[in-house]
Amino acid sequence: MITNLAMMAASAGHVLAASGSDGDSSNFGLLFLASGFVFYGLMYLRYRNADKRQRYESETEATLHNMQAEDQFVRSMKGLSNSRMANANNTEVRGVRRKFF
Amino acid sequence: MPQESDGAATSDSDLVDESNSVDGVPTVVQTDSGSKDGLVKCARCGATEIALNVATGMLRCNFCRFEWSTDNALKAFNLDGDIGELSGLVVGSGATEIIPSTAEVMTFKCSACGAEVVIDTNNSTQARCHWCRNTLSMNQQVDNGAVPDMILPFSLPKEDAIARISAFVKKRTFFAHPKFRAEFNPENVMGVYLPYMVVDVNAHARLTGQGEHQTRSYTVGDDKNKQRRYDADLYDVAREFDIHVNDLTVESSSDRLDQNTSKNSNNIINSIMPFDVEKSVRYDSNYLAGFTSERRDSDLKQLSPIAHTQAEDITRYRVNETLKQYDRGVRWDQQVVDVRGERWVSAYLPVWLYSYQQRKSNGGTFLHYVAVNARTGETMGSVPINQRKLLLVSAAVQVVGTIVAIVLTVLGK
What we know:
The structure holds 2 protein chains of 2 kinds. By secondary structure, chain A is α+β, with helices and mostly antiparallel strands. Chain A contains 4 helices and 2 strands. In chain B, the strands form 4 sheets. In chain B, strands 1, 2, 7, 12, 13, 14, 16, 17, 18, 19 and 20 form an 11-stranded mixed sheet that branches. Chain B is an alpha+beta fold. Chain B is built from 7 helices and 20 strands. Chain B starts with a strand and ends with a helix. Chain B is flat, with a radius of gyration of 27 Å. Mean pLDDT of chain B is 87; it is low at 1-22. Chains A and B meet through helix 1, helix 2, helix 3, helix 4 and strand 1 of A and strand 13, strand 14, strand 15, helix 5 and helix 6 of B. Strand 1 of chain A pairs antiparallel with strand 14 of chain B, so a sheet runs across the interface.
């Protein structure tokens, strides 16, 4: 339970920090509104390190061979509101053993 | 290298899409040939008082100081061959299926005095004869997972581990639980050999999906409602390649595989990986003298899905090197990773482990670890928190933050 709260608080801090970095002063104020929760989350993780795990996806030695690449242009899209592609999963990690609850 | 085939564990490949290559009978590489149980004597003086000299990484006779080491395991058993040549399932004889009926407590006859000596394989593969004080070792593999294919000796001295654990905890004392601060004694650190499986994978992968490349970023709306917008090009993306994964390391103790951080701190031990497993040597129980060990209790049946999913993650991560133009990301719609060959070797890997059992106010307990990788020195830990103190300080930070937020909002208008 406490782990979940800490993770939520820490991630809230990241979200607010990200929105604040766009230069919007009202969002910058919001960052301070969550400061107690963010502080709790960051301290909890610093002491308990519940978020830590081996980064096996990057730390394990692996080599690619015989690469064949295909890239076909489909279309151009204008006026997208999201800075990231919807449902992008190329950085997804599914085999992590660590769970928070 | 003697090889034989038997009916040991086959791999379950359900987590790797359309994997079809590891069915059938595995090739078993015998890794305990020439090993013997009982008295293992110093070649120079015949004493059985043998232990690891951490400073040199070699076995040392405690009577005559003669030092030697066993061979590099991967080279000795040709377990480091070209991964691209791997086909089907290859397992070390120490990684084969555990037979549940196999005894965990083994009885040996001391060949020096004839007494019967018991070894509890859950914690060690050595015991001292209570009559003649000789040390008896168990080096031959039995089907209970106690004797692995290879062992990576400790190379970080205990003093170093104590210093690293002290420094780690010292940086986390302000919010540490007062009882923990009072009872913390890093001298109690234990050297433990933990069981792992080291896996090589030869796979062919085909990933198809779509990727987006940002072509423009701009702001729309008036001063009161500014919004960021993006233009992007959409591409159909496909990548087909072979991937060789080397020394993927997976915990092979069911206790250590459970990494639910609300119940235990096993994630701490996981986070100090990786180890330089390529330097592992042939198993000899004398490496365990002065240390404890945990017995492997998980088979390929349980571990294959984990290793395959992690190999898939590694595949996705590595292929990102070829996707740099897709700065908005790639959505893979189909991921086919066909495992053509894999090699499983069981290993004991060295960890300095400081543990602290916290008794909670609700009567429950929580076991905190501070762990040091006894090869690389990487240190990670879990320190019990004084919740009341942390909540009070967090509340104070919240009050100050709220005041600052109000001031900023007022000034911003």
